[in-house]
Amino acid sequence: MAANTYLIRGAAILGGAAEDLLIRDGVIAARGNGLAAGDATVIDAAGLVALPGMVDVHTHLREPGREDAETVETGTRAAALGGFTAVHAMANSNPVADTAGVVEQVHSLGRASGWVDVRPVGAVTVGLAGEQLAELGAMADSRAQVRMFSDDGICVHDPVLMRRALEYVKAFDGVVAQHAQEPRLTAGAQMNEGAVSAVLGLAGWPAVAEESIIARDVLLTQHVGSRLHICHVSTAGSVEIVRWAKARGINVTAEVTPHHLILTDELVRSYDPVYKVNPPLRTDADVQALREGLADGTIDVVGTDHAPHPSEHKECEWAQAAMGMTGLETALSVVQETMIETGLMTWADFARVTSFTPARIGRVADQGRPLEAGEPANVILVDPAARWTVDPHKMATMGRNSPFKGRELPGSVVATFFKGHPTVLNGRLNTPYRYTETVPAPDSTGAVSGA
């Protein structure tokens, strides 16, 4: 029995007709009906849906510097269990990923772990301070081959600096991913500005703080002729601005998080800090607009914004709590519940917004590929009929700050194949993929030998 050959028998490809997939040496060797097993390990996939591995454009792995919250190892284990085969690691680590040395360290840690493809996101500005551009070109030319840049968590609010960043990344087909938040409109903000914030007496975060930055940046993008990605869109008005920009041919893409597709600011009435997030949970009208925008293609992708925190940073009074929620291990289920079970999308649409398009935005060539012969074998098997109750203490992520704790969700990942290797089997972690070439180890300064 060949260790690197697997026959997936009878899976519904993208939710369609049941077919077999033969995986050999990291590649889909054949697709069809009645494929011969030969020396392959046979996986009975009757009743399961076969999808391309999910690609997350927005993950916080915290390492280096915040290993009390998450590490590349624990975060990528969570990603594999959630059905991801690639994640983009945001730059707000400590030190910030604003140099070639730091992004190469993150890249090397990802390869050493072997659970998913880790694609570092480079900071737009030095130290996320919003004062001068980081080493964009050096990060692009590094071993990490960075193509996405973001100060996520902080808005690049200076329009001159934003314009320069958009101009700079054109040289290597990069993209600037903006955290749209006008800081002067959100000083001290604790939640969405609206009826609930007025009742609770919490400082409100107006929708216009997000929408005004998006409007400015799509116009800058049109002027420069560059690529812009909008992180975690959260308001109905933002959806309309992105829709307007796309109608004008502006090269803008946008993401929505799973939690913004299902949760509203009404939950803040509990004062439970697990619901404190950036951008904040909005109204039901916003949730409906986000779902419609994702369904009609205005919003291009789902990005988890997986943001684990140590328990002491969330289990405290609301005003002092950190912003953020975990999401890697619940994303598929939440999208199934909000988009597929509501009839807004099919599983083929799911593959578009969680795999095909995210890989294109991040310029990850061997991810988000069709499930066809000759393509890289990044494949997941999903049981759409499964139901499970979220227990953060049973998750692989170190973060326990899941807003879905105790909630029953549909769908589960049965298997994840990364480069043809099963990192997850029967819903449990199996073994990581091991690269054949030597993975350079970072030294104490974060530099990589040979870099």
Q: How would you describe what is shown here?
A:
The chain has 451 residues and is of the alpha/beta class. It contains ten helices and 19 strands. It has helices at 72-81, 100-113, 136-141, 159-169, 195-200, 207-224, 236-247, 284-296, 331-340, 347-362; strands at 5-13, 18-24, 27-32, 41-44, 49-52, 54-59, 84-89, 117-120, 148-149, 175-178, 191-192, 204-205, 228-230, 252-256, 301-302, 379-389, 408-418, 421-425, 428-429. The strands form four sheets. Strands 1, 2, 3, 4, 5, 16, 17, 18 and 19 form a nine-stranded mixed β-sheet that branches. A five-stranded parallel β-sheet has the order 9-10-13-14-15. The protein has a three-stranded parallel β-sheet with strand order 6-7-8. A hairpin with a 2-residue loop joins strand 18 (421-425) and strand 19. Helix 4 (159-169) packs across helix 6. The chain is globular and about 65 Å long. The protein starts with a strand and ends in a 22-residue tail after the last strand. Residues 442-451 have low confidence and may be disordered.
Mean pLDDT metric:
95
Amount of helix: 25-40%
Pairing-aware structural class of the strands and helices?
alpha/beta
Strand content: 15-25%
Short description:
This protein has helices at residues 72-81, 100-113, 136-141, 159-169, 195-200, 207-224, 236-247, 284-296, 331-340, 347-362, and strands spanning 5-13, 18-24, 27-32, 41-44, 49-52, 54-59, 84-89, 117-120, 148-149, 175-178, 191-192, 204-205, 228-230, 252-256, 301-302, 379-389, 408-418, 421-425, 428-429.
